[in-house]
Amino acid sequence: MRRTFGLRASVLATSLAAALVLGACGGGETAPAAGPAAPAPPAGGPLDLAGVCPATVVMQQDWQPEAEHGGMYSLVGPDRTIDADAKLVRGSLVAQGVDTGVDIEVRPGGPNVGFQPVPALMQLDDSIVLGTVYSDVAIAASANQPVVAVVGQMTTSPLMLMWDPASHPGAQTLRDVAASGVPVLTSDPIITALLEKQGIISSAQVDTSYEGTPARFVSDPRILQQGYVTAEPYLYEREITEWGRPVANQKLADYGYSVYPSALSVRADRLEQLRPCLEKLVPIMQRAQLDYLADPAPTNALIVELVETYQTGWSYSPGVADYAVRALREEQLVTNDPASGVFGQFDPARMQEIVSTFGPIQQAQGTITQLPAPDSLYTNEFIDPSIRMG
């Protein structure tokens, strides 16, 4: 699980409980009306995964269903079934309109897996082919549960700090707000350590007690509070009735939070075994994210349906799904790799910077004892360099 993604569940479950009515879905499996079967690809072609990938390609997410993982969900075919008990969706893996000859199973993380980090889940379950892992999580797991990122789905993290414009008139940046000495409410000590290291905040401002509810922000709007540019600006203005007005924000990526968010990763000791599969699957994942952003509506409908069916207390409305897609585009969270111009590729210099920035912080916090080699955390060998955002 990406630690700070977990906060959004209780924001919605707590503040919207009175207004929220989850669909009355029972347990077991549900399936939509069957649509026309997708055609098969040319045998042995780039979209033919039969015989080279596992019969079921299992993908493990770090949080609940949401637009940030739309590329994965877009591959689930129309013959899908939703298992409300196991909290997963499975169906034919359909890419670019063709049935690849294998199935896909997408599993959510967070409370559905006891908040276990994705590298730990992958270590326990050999059936997981790809998992979403933030770069700093990969660093933390490098000694005992190493993973290798094979394709990036987002270029920039949506993590941000937000503030009330009325409480800080004239403030243009989070640095401006932090200079007033207000508390910085987060759940992740890495965030505050990064800001402290740059002299943006002092240790006296650090408050890592954030539980995800809007209560503190509503009652004390002077504070800086973490959130996501793909969700909280919409939620606080449109769905959190206790607030009901805009918030200002700035991405932490502007202050050195340079991690690759939710990079699709494999277990390091399975890289060779999965190589024939990854040679075909990674380009499919590159295109899937771009195809999703070009036509998100069908996949967003599935994401909302899954959330309603799973009934975990997490809420995800069509409105926030649509907003998230706009944010992914407009905030340039999904772009070509700036260094190479290729979508989904990792920049070696950036990965070196990530280890140099976050490794010492994790060492100081006792998370790791030794820095991993940056090139052990990723590979670009399966990337199709012809795949680029238009």
Automatic annotation (TrEMBL):
PROSITE patterns associated with the record: PROKAR_LIPOPROTEIN
InterPro entries linked to this entry: NMT1/THI5
Stretch forming the signal peptide: 1-24
Keywords assigned: Signal
A GO biological-process term: thiamine biosynthetic process
Protein name as annotated: ABC-type nitrate/sulfonate/bicarbonate transport system substrate-binding protein
Source organism of this protein record: Pseudonocardia cypriaca
Species lineage: Bacteria, Bacillati, Actinomycetota, Actinomycetes, Pseudonocardiales
